[in-house]
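hey
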């Protein structure tokens, strides 16, 4: 039942997406997606679907090299500090802008123990807001694969999560059902 609802939600998101509505998403797998909560389950099929809805600060290009996604650029400020500049033209589907607060919120959320996605922020001690469009990642030790790891650190709207009582990651092991496990507030396509 859950996989049917999630497939329906994904279809509705695509149909509501304006220019993206003309595209077709075909998907098949040997198992079902477990949840739409981007920080809940590190499960290949689930991650494959979630990556079509939520984005990270970085992503792979067609040559499997890291490129900007929600971040426009980054620089290593020192061995234990990376600074990311966020895209200023990104809005979530409700029209609210992507800000550093969403990145800081998503970091706190992904680290909650009931989820299984913490591996993608391993070695990150803190994500700190510098200004509305800039965040610093403060590391416990050097993380040579940080830019690759954070591809799967998906950013969620803080305001949407608070409005829908989804500040906490779904406890999938306890069969918890939350608003975020069945719904999504993704960044809207930009031109």
């Amino acid at each position: 039942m859950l996989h049917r609802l999630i497939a329906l939600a994904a279809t509705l998101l695509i149909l509501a997406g304006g220019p993206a509505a003309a595209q077709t998403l075909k998907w098949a797998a040997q198992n079902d997606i477990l949840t739409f909560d981007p920080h809940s389950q590190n499960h290949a099929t689930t991650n494959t679907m979630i990556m079509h809805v939520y984005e990270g600060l970085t992503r792979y290009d067609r040559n499997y090299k890291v490129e900007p996604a929600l971040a426009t650029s980054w620089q290593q400020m020192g061995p234990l500090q990376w600074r990311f500049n966020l895209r200023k033209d990104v809005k979530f589907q409700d029209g609210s802008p992507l800000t550093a607060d969403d990145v800081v919120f998503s970091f706190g959320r992904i680290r909650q123990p009931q989820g299984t996605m913490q591996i993608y922020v391993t070695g990150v001690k803190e994500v700190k807001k510098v200004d509305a469009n800039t965040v610093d990642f403060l590391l416990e030790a050097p993380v040579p694969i940080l830019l690759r790891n954070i591809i799967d650190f998906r950013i969620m709207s803080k305001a949407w999560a608070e409005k829908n009582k989804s500040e906490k990651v779904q406890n999938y092991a306890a069969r918890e059902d939350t608003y975020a496990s069945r719904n999504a507030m993704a960044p809207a396509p930009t031109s």
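The longest helix spans residues 2-15. The two ends are 35 Å apart (CA to CA).
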